[in-house]
Batch of 3 targets.
Target 1
Amino acid sequence: MSSPDLFVVCKSCGSEVSPYVTECPYCGTRLRKRAPKIERQRTTPEPPAPKRAKQPKPPRADRPPRRRRERSLRLGRLRTDEIPGVRGEATGRPWATIVLVALSFGIWLSLAFFVDDDLAIASIDGDPWRFLTAPFLNASGTAQFACVVGIGVFGWLLERGHGPVVVLVTFLLAGAGGLAAADVLGGQGLLFGGQGGALGLLGAWVVPVLLGRRRGDDDEADLLGVAVIAVVLLLIGVATGTSALAGALGAAIGAVLGLVLAAVRPRVA
C-alpha cells in the first residue's frame, strides 16, 4: 500500500504545500485535478458495549422521597343477611337508646323543680301519662346519672342485637309497667325513678348471655361489672326513698323478655 508524500513543491512559486490540495495556496497555480485518495486500514468492527441499566437517582437530602398516593378504600353499608350470622343495621346508630338518654336528661331538667310535687309522681288514681314521665325522673343527680348510664349501656347492647323497637318496648314495660305493678301491689316509696327501666334493659340483655354460656357459647361479657351495676340500681330506690319494688319488678319484666329474646336470632352474632 503506497502512501502520499509529506509535501509537494509548487512548480510556479517553489513553495512546499500539502499533497492533499489541488491548488497552491500561495500563487493559485493548479497542481492536480483531484486530491490523492486516502486509503483507510480495514479493521473488524468491535461489538457494541452493553447498555448499563439506569439506576434511580438518590433522593435529595432536603426533600423526602415521594410516596405513591394510595386510595382509601371505603366499605359500603352492610346489607341485610350479606354475611351469614350478621344482619345489617338500617342506620348503624342506636337511635332508640339515644332518644331515651336525651329524654332522661331533658325531662329531668324540665321537671327538676317539681320532683317533690305530685306532678312527677305516678299513681293509678292519678293521670295515666305520669307513668310515661316518671321513669325518666330521679330524686338526685347521682341517681339520675346512674340510671342514665344503665339505660345507655344496656340499651345500646340490646339495640345492637335486636333493634330499636325491642329497646323501646322493654323500657316501656319495665319502667312504666314496673311502677304500675308496684302501685297495685302497694309497694313503699314514691312511684318515680328510672331504675326499673334500666334494670329491665339489663335483664333483657343478660339473660340470653347467661343461657348462651350455659350452652357453651363463648363471649366477652363482663358479668361481674354487670352484677355491680345491677346492685347499684337496686339500691337507688332504698337510698332515695323511691319504690325499690318498682326496680325489682322492672328487672323481673326484663328477665322474662330476655327469655323470649334468647329464642330469637340476634342482629349481630
Note: The chain is about 45% helix and 0% strand.
Target 2
Amino acid sequence: MPTFTHGKEAVIKVADSGATLRDLSSVLNTATLSREVETAETSALGSDDKSYIPGLRDATISVEGMADTTTSGYFDGILGSSTTFEFYPAGEGAGNVKYSGACILTSFETGAELGGAVTVSGEFQVSGAITRAIV
C-alpha cells in the first residue's frame, strides 16, 4: 500500500558561497524539481506517424517563500555561480528519497505588496546528472 507524505515535510538545501550546505526550508513554501528529456525526430518520408529517439536530460529547481536577510544573502552570494543542492520531497526521514547534484542560480527575485509578507523566489538550472538515493 502506498505511503503518502504531506508537502510540509519537504526539505531543500543549497550550498552558499562558502560551499556550506544551508537548509532553506524554514523560509520557503514551494520547492519544485522539474525534469525533462529532449527528443529528436526520426520520422522518414512515407511514414504516417512520427517517431523519436531520446536525447539530453535537463532539470530545473524553482523555489518560493518569504524573504529574510539571511536567505537573501545566500541567494545574492551564489547568483550566477555553480553550487550544489539536496532536495528531500518527503522530508529527511529514513526510507525517503533524496535528489542531489550541481546547479546554478539563474534568477532571484524579491517582491513586496501591501498587506503581504516580503517574498523571495529563485530558479536553479541543474548542471549534469541528478543523483537519486533512498536515505
Note: The beta strands are 11-15, 21-23, 28-41, 52-66, 82-88, 97-111, 119-134.
Target 3
Amino acid sequence: MKQNPYENKEYLQRVAELQPKRNLAAGMAKAFWTGGLICAMGQGLSFWAQRGMGWDEAMSGTFVAIVLIFLGAVLTGLGWYDCLGTYAGAGSVVPITGFANAMVASAMEYRKEGGVTGVGGKLLTIAGPVLVYGTLAAMLAGVFDWIVRVLR
C-alpha cells in the first residue's frame, strides 16, 4: 500500500522549512496603509468634487466610484496593480479598485482570443455574479422593507 505523503513527518518538516516566512504584523500594516491611502484618495476626490465643482454628495460619490474603477482597470491593464497587490495584499483588494482589478484581470487572460470574444466575453465573468446577486439582495431587501411597512 502506498503511503500518503501528507502523513509523512519528513515530508511535512521539509514543507515547513521551504515555506516562506510571513511577518503578519508587517503585512497587516502594509494592507492598512495602502487601503487607507486608496480610500483617502477617494475622499479627497469627493471633497474636490463637492467644494471645487459644486456637486452634491450623491453626484460626487458617483464621480469617485467612476474614477477609482477607471484607475484600477488601467493599472491592471498596465500590469501595475499586480505589483500593488503583491505589496499590499488585502489592502489593494478591499477598496473599489480591487473590484475593477478582478474584472479586468479575468478579461486580460483572454486577450489573445480577440477584443469581442476574448476580453469582452470574459469581462463580466467576475462582475456578472456580483451584479446578479447584488440585484437579488436589493430586491429582497425592498420586499422585506415593503412587508414591514405594510404590517405597521
Note: Residues 138 and 144 are 10 Å apart (CA to CA).
